[in-house]
Each structure stands twice: as structure tokens, then as C-alpha cells.
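Reviewer 2 asked us to include a model.

Predict the structure of this chain.
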Amino acid sequence: MKKILLISFVYFVTLLSAQQVVDTTKIFGVTIDDPWGDRTDLIEAFSAHCIKPTARIVFDEGVAASEYDAPVAELEPYCFIMGEILDSYYVKAYSVQQYLERTTEYLGRFEEEVSIWEVGNEINGEWLGDADSVVKKIEGAWQIVADKGNKAAVTLYYNNACYENPQNEMFTWINENLSDSMKQNLDYVLVSYYEDDCENDVLSNSEWQAVFDSLHQVFPNSRLGMGECGTLIESKKSEYMHRYYSMEITTPGYIKGYFWWYYKHDCVPKTKALWDTLDTIVSAWENPAAINENTTEHPLDIKIYPNPTRGKISINSNFVKRIEIYNLLGERVKVVSDRNKIDISDQPKGVFFLRMFTNAGWQTKKIIHLICK
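Predicted model (C-alpha cells):
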């Protein structure tokens, strides 16, 4: 018995340790455009996610790096940080020298805390100014970051349906302006897209697949992802979250991302419905089949989702009459008679077994509890 308990304990500890390893091929991104004020609710929202988020902090124009000491220090334990040197809207207001000085200032202040430096935001946007000036700013900033051995990202603006100047079309701008060095050596290349800005043009998953496949041809050594998305239309927010965070792209180096712009407004505090919407979608990354479960009504084909779970569980079968929940030690911890109210959030992290009675007999399914407290 001691041997069994030891094996179970080792397995349990190994499982928990594995959950702490960050899978950088699947970045769960959110954007924080306003880190000011009391950050308690924001920290609680971050820490409750079972995938540690990468928070893109937009460093405000005209604000000294030292003003961000408290926000960065308080948030960094609960998220990875991507620092945006300057929002695209204000790039034109900075000279090349000012932009590079700003990069040096922020890098010098937060080199240890920031994991990725976004050296250029929506760089092909028509509002940033002439291409020559923009390139000098972002390439200069990239060189400053790269010379210090830090990771750099640029965000492009996907505007296939909404550019005014053809020279600013994303791929045209890239090919005509970016150096071969940047094309070969950038760490991350991300894509910003707002349907609200582009006549509500909704791209299918296959169309996005083509976009990222084409980007991979231009940036063969970069990790690729969605760098910014969102909507101001309240009734569309859940739909948009599902559409973008559930995208399935197979391009080599695709890291997801998404970086929902309105995270603080929509998901903080975590009691807001959209926090739960987003967390449920992202939790399904660990179990892709949970997004589109087969709901065939057969007593021997019971699906459990999400699995891994944060505590609340659903099953797709009307044939289940009784559910007994056991921990890894074989101890029964709960009996559930309502299949729509399965909740193990009062249990610790680990492996559990659902023993379900149907009209075809008993079935047992393994679940992994990842609840974050």
C-alpha cells in the first residue's frame, strides 16, 4: 500500500510541476492599455486563469518609464509581459531620435521584467507617417533590443479590405520597406485586425491560414500570431472572442496570441461573464476536442468537457443517472445526481475519476483538475 501511495504521490507532483512549464508555442495574450489605479482585480483575473497570460502593456505616450515601476512590479508575478514601446497612433509624433531614446529608456528600466518587446505597433498603418521614418524607428528599436539579447516583436496591420493607399497594404509594405535582416531575424511577427475598422469583414479560418502561410514565407524564422483584436460592440464581444481565440492555424511557428485589446474593460473583475467566456475558450487549448464535442446520444459514448477543467464539468449524455467522483488514491470524494451540476472546484489540483452509471452499466473517465487559486 505504501508503494502505491508513493507512486501516486510522485505522479501527482509530476503532474503539478508540468503545469508550471510555459508552453511558448501557445501564448495566451491579453492587452492592458490602462494599468493605473488599484490593480487588485486585475491581478485576481490574471491569477485565476489556468494558462498564465502574456499581458501586453501599452506604454503611454509622453510618460516616463519610471512611472510604470509599480504596475510592472505588481503584475509581473502573475503574467508574462510584452512591452509595447508606443501605440501606433502616436508614432508619428516622435522623431526617430526620440523613438530610439524611448526604447533605450524603457529597455533599461524593465529589461528583467519584460519578456517580449513590441518595437513597432501596426507598422504599415497609414497614420504612422512616411515609411522611411517608420522603418528607421522600428529597425533602430529592434537593433537596440536585439543587441541586448532580448526578444522583439513587430505587429502588422492586416488591411486587405480597408487600406486607402495601396502602398500600405500589409504584404506590399513589408516587401517594399523591411530589411532582409528583420525578415530573417525577428523573434515575433504579429497581426492586428479589427473587423470594426474593416467594414465588418469576417475572414474564415482558411483565409487566416493563407495569411499566416504567406507571412511564414516572408518571415521564415519568426514565431507568428494574432497580436491584437477586439470590438466595441457589446453584443458581439463573446462571438469575437470565440472566433479569434479558437482559430486553428497550422502554419509553422504559429503561437496563437490574440491580445484582446479590451481585457481590463471586459474581463475585470473576473466575475464578469466575458472573463469566464475567455477562460473557457483558452482552457480548451489543452483539449481541442472540447471545442466541438461529438454529442452522439449513445450510452457508451460519453464526452466530458472541458477536460482539463477548472472545476465545473459538463457531459453530453442524457443516459447518465449517477456520478461518483474518486481521487487518485481511490477515495470517493463526491456523489452527484445532477449531471448538469458537476463541480469539483472544492478539490485540489490533480487527477480524478468520474464513475458514471448509465443504462448500459458503469463507465469510468479520467479528468484533470487544473483550478487555479
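The chain is about 30% helix and 25% strand. The chain has two domains: 24-286, 289-369. We have added this to the supplementary material.
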